[in-house]
Hints:
By secondary structure, this protein is α/β, with parallel strands linked by helices. The chain folds into two domains: 20-53 and 96-313, Rossmann fold (3-Layer(aba) Sandwich); 58-92, no CATH class. 32% of the residues lie in helices and 25% in strands. It has helices at 20-24, 27-31, 76-82, 117-134, 158-169, 188-198, 216-226, 239-242, 266-286, 303-308, and strands at residues 33-38, 57-64, 86-92, 97-103, 138-144, 149-155, 204-209, 230-237, 249-254, 257-262, 292-298, 311-313. The strands form four sheets. Strands 6-5-4-7-8-11 form a six-stranded mixed beta sheet, with helices on both faces. Helix 4 runs antiparallel to helix 5 and helix 6 packs parallel to helix 7. It is elongated, with a radius of gyration of 22 Å. It starts with 19 loop residues before the first helix and ends with a strand. 36% of the residues are buried.
Amino acid sequence: MSAVRPTTPLAELSPARATLPELIALRAAGESINLAAIRVRVLAEGGHLSTFKGRGVEYDESRLYQPGDDLRTMDWRVTARTGEPHTKVFRDERDRPVLIWLDLRRPMHFATRGVFKSVRAAQAAALIGWSAVGNGDRLGGLVFSESEHVELRPALGRRAALRLFRSITQDSMWNPGSLQESDEPHDIEHTLSRITRVARPGSLIFLMSDFRDMGGQFEQNLRQLAGHCDVFVVHFFDPIEADLPPPGYYRIQSGARTVAIDTDSESARRRYRSQFEARQELLRNLTQIPSVHLIDCATTQDPRSALAERFGNR
């Protein structure tokens, strides 16, 4: 089975690779998406109806303590150094950081229908990036494969979006067969811990992957991240991962590898289906963490429709 051109309104230049012109061309579609508010349709999905945490605050200066100041904002270091009580002064951030965490490892470069999971994820990243630019928010993130990762500090404007898109579409991210394993781990738990350390309070974060190898540390890092940020777990999958094709003998080519599968066994089909359902259940359980939300997007689905189910239009 090989990836075929999708029937969705989004016309891809290639079902196996995202290109810079393609991501740039999504500007109008992305700017029409409103990231300012979430639509929570089902109470069971997380059980929380709160709006986003907001744009956050950042430290401005320390000044002498005045009667009525909140004791929780005391600057104990300055107080100890000067011998006089000082309190921290904060100011509202004028723009909100939007961070995109994008998995482009080998398992993402796969599809039997529609386009590769990596292509769908890149398109969704572009839509979110353009929406952030249109909203005046700062855009940054982390893009990674087995061999490398690129960290981008949040910045304003169209230049920030183009910087992200160039990182996504560079050749080394789209040629898994030529990748060399890096000495530094780039598994999802390690890379999530990196973005946990740099995300500022009030950030809006999108985690984009097929989440095939989550461990216990992933949930721990996610809880830490969701403590001060709003997090969307965007799950990409191919229909064959959810359910095997009709009984028969199939050959699936992935890069230089060819894998043969026999789908005649009903017990094997049930085991295969249960593995996907177990991963779905793990992801749904993550939405019980306050400020964590789940979006599913199949390789046959237009990512605009997946985002539209959770976000309104401008």
